[in-house]
Design goal:
The protein has 179 residues and is mainly α. It is built from ten helices and no strands.
Length: 179
């Protein structure tokens, strides 16, 4: 109730208490794992990402199939620049959420940073299939095509992006640079 009411002050002690309970059955482990994920979300939203990550990892220790812990941990690891571990978490999460724009976006960003263009393109295209016209994914795909020497395709993507989002400054700058 406190979590739904966004009352972190009341929720923290209750969740911490639940997270510290001894577990004896598989059901207890699942409940503890879920409590740890909620506690992780509260920590993250309160500006404590390191503590949140510890809770997500502990949640997975108690329940290996806690899809929310894999997803939240993967996103947080990616934000923290821990790409390899973030990738592993997100790939595990994608087994539970095969059509998640959040997962596809984060995997694409990881692969773009690693210059794994084929993998990045796969996830950007999958993201665009889930969210047609997503401006950031469209821009990233155009930049990927540009870096791969697909100039005409990149220009078409950027022009379409500007038609749909005339205020997209990066797309305008990229198109000007190409000209």
């Amino acid at each position: 109730i406190y979590v739904k009411q966004n009352n972190a002050e009341e929720a923290f002690p209750l969740l911490r208490s639940l997270a510290n309970e001894d577990v004896h059955t598989n059901h207890d482990k699942i409940i503890k794992s879920e409590a740890l994920v909620v506690l992780g979300h509260l920590e993250e939203n309160s500006g404590f990402p390191a503590e949140a990550l510890l809770h997500y990892k502990k949640a997975i220790e108690y329940h290996k199939d806690n899809k929310e812990a894999w997803l939240a941990g993967g996103v947080l690891l990616t934000k923290a620049g821990q790409r390899k571990e973030g990738e592993m978490y997100l790939l595990k999460a994608s087994m539970y959420y095969p059509a998640s724009p959040l997962i596809e976006n984060n995997l694409a960003l990881i692969y773009m940073q690693e210059k794994s263009n084929d993998k990045a393109r796969y996830h950007l295209e999958k993201l665009l299939a889930l969210q047609p016209g997503n401006p950031q994914a469209t821009y990233n795909l155009a930049m990927l095509k540009l870096s791969s020497g697909e100039l005409n395709e990149a220009v078409l993507e950027l022009k379409q992006l500007i038609r749909n989002y005339p205020e997209h400054k990066n797309a305008k700058e990229a198109l000007e640079f190409i000209k």
